Amino acid sequence: MNTLQQIRFIWKPFIFLLCLVPATMVVTDVFGLTGSLGANPVEAILDRFGNWGLRFIMITLAITPLRRMTGWNWLSRYRRMIGLFTFFYIAMHFTTWFVLDRDMLLSEVVEDLTKRPFILVGFTALLILTALAITSFTAIRRRMGRRWQILHNAVYIVGILGVWHYWWQVKKDITEPLIYAAVLATLLGARIIWRLARRRKQRRAALQAQVQS
Ligand code: HEM
How far is the CA of 165 from the centre of ligand 1 (A)? Predict the structure, then answer.
């Protein structure tokens, strides 16, 4: 089996199943098979999907810097799958809120969106994520050309909105949102530094070409 076949038939299915573990644990906890959801099961499900959604955003954002730092180019082969899992967990978080918490009542949805600004922030992130998920397929990517990369850079905005949404609702202990904010700032910082270095290199190459000609 060559490397590409190993990725396709062994590693991709393995990582797919691994990404499904948190969702499976929610289902098994609902039935009391692996644990329990505590006194407020709806809130527990909502929080679990929200937390995993945020973790998946961070993992998605970490792939490119990690690939550049280590030279492990194979990492980019898992980016789309992990990005789609981010969408899956946030969509489940939203569905839990809409179906179990708000009883699918449009009046309650509108009330929450207008009276609880952190929900509006989360909702905006979900809308952007939906656009990224829809346009993640190869055929659409090819058709969009350069605009695809510009749109997909918005994943950083999703990260910022996600951390903001979490931070805004925390009442006392801000340790967890602070950790997410620090991770996000590091990933964004790495990207900015890499961009600046690349631009400087391009400028130097252009100058050298001018001198030689
Ligand atoms: C990128 C998008 C989103 C991320 C990353 C995210 C993440 C989170 C996180 C981490 C929590 C806190 C969990 C905890 O307390 O341990 C949370 C709570 C919550 N989220 Fe989101 N969320 C997102 C989008 C949304 C959307 C679209 C909605 C609904 C429209 C929503 C509604 C809520 C609600 C109602 C809570 C519970 C607040 C409470 O306990 O009082 N979120 N979210």
Answer: 7
Residue 213 predicted with pLDDT over 90: no
Q: What is the pLDDT of residue 31?
A: 94
User: What is d(CA 101, CA 173) in angstroms, rounded to the nearest whole number?
Assistant: 24
For ligand 1, atom 29, which residue shows the shortest CA distance? 94
| Helix/strand/coil percentages in the chain, nearest 5 | 85, 0, 15
User: What's 39's DSSP letter?
Assistant: S
Pair of tokens at residue 4: 């590409």
Q: What is the average pLDDT across 164-188?
A: 96
Q: What separation in angstroms does the CA of 65 have from each of 68, 119, 195?
A: 5, 30, 11
Residue that has been written with the tokens 């948190």 in this structure: 22
- The predicted model scores a pTM of 0.93
CA 154, 158, 160, 161 dihedral sign is positive
**Where residue 112 falls among pLDDT bands split at 50, 70, 90?**
very high
The ligand 1 atom at the shortest distance from the C-alpha of residue 123 is 27
In this predicted structure, the answer to whether residue 135 has a pLDDT above a threshold of 90 is: yes
Give the count of alpha carbons within 13 A of 197, CB side only. Answer: 7
